[in-house]
């Protein structure tokens, strides 16, 4: 019996992982070989090194500022999962400013919402976070996506392993 259980468990473990991975949605933006792998706080320290680099970044919207010819969205960056959804459980990767042409309706990009974007690094700007001085990388946005709660939950397994009693409210 033991001889049968061991090979069976070796076969089931990879199949289970494959099935769970298949549930995850595909990335929303296509990656390219010239994609900058640095995160905002790294870019802020040496912005000239990354000038005109292409990024796929995401995070939590802090504020929207509409100006005469463009809108700027301040974003607290988070790592992205394999579907390019921000992983807010991780520590932040710094802040950046997403520069979008024209007017952006603040209700479409509310404070606290999560977004992912693709764009080109366009230098940096000194500013403040509260009373602290801060350097914000600027990203000229090509495409932006604000995540809905339903999209954030899709593809995530409802199977949880653990010991004890738990209550889940969705």
UniProtKB/TrEMBL annotation:
One of its GO terms (cellular component) is outer membrane. InterPro entries: OMP_Slp. Residues 1-26 form the signal peptide. Transmembrane segments: none annotated. PROSITE patterns: PROKAR_LIPOPROTEIN. Pfam families: Slp. Keywords: Signal. This is Starvation-inducible outer membrane lipoprotein. It comes from Dyella thiooxydans. The lineage of its organism: Bacteria, Pseudomonadati, Pseudomonadota, Gammaproteobacteria, Lysobacterales.
């Amino acid at each position: 019996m033991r001889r049968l259980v061991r090979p069976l468990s070796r076969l089931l473990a990879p199949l289970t992982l494959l099935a769970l991975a298949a549930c995850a949605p595909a990335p929303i933006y296509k990656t390219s070989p010239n994609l900058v792998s640095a995160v905002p706080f790294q870019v802020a320290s040496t912005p000239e090194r990354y000038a005109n680099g292409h990024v796929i970044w995401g995070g939590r919207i802090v504020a929207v500022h509409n100006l005469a010819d463009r809108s700027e969205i301040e974003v607290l960056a988070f790592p992205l999962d394999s579907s390019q959804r921000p992983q807010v459980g991780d520590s932040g990767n710094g802040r950046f400013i997403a520069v979008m042409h024209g007017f952006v309706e603040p209700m479409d990009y509310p404070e606290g919402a999560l977004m992912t974007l693709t764009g080109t690094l366009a230098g940096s700007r000194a500013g403040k976070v509260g009373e602290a001085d801060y350097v914000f990388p600027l990203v000229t946005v090509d495409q932006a996506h604000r995540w809905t709660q339903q999209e954030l939950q899709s593809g995530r397994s409802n199977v949880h392993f653990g010991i004890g009693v738990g209550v889940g409210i969705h």
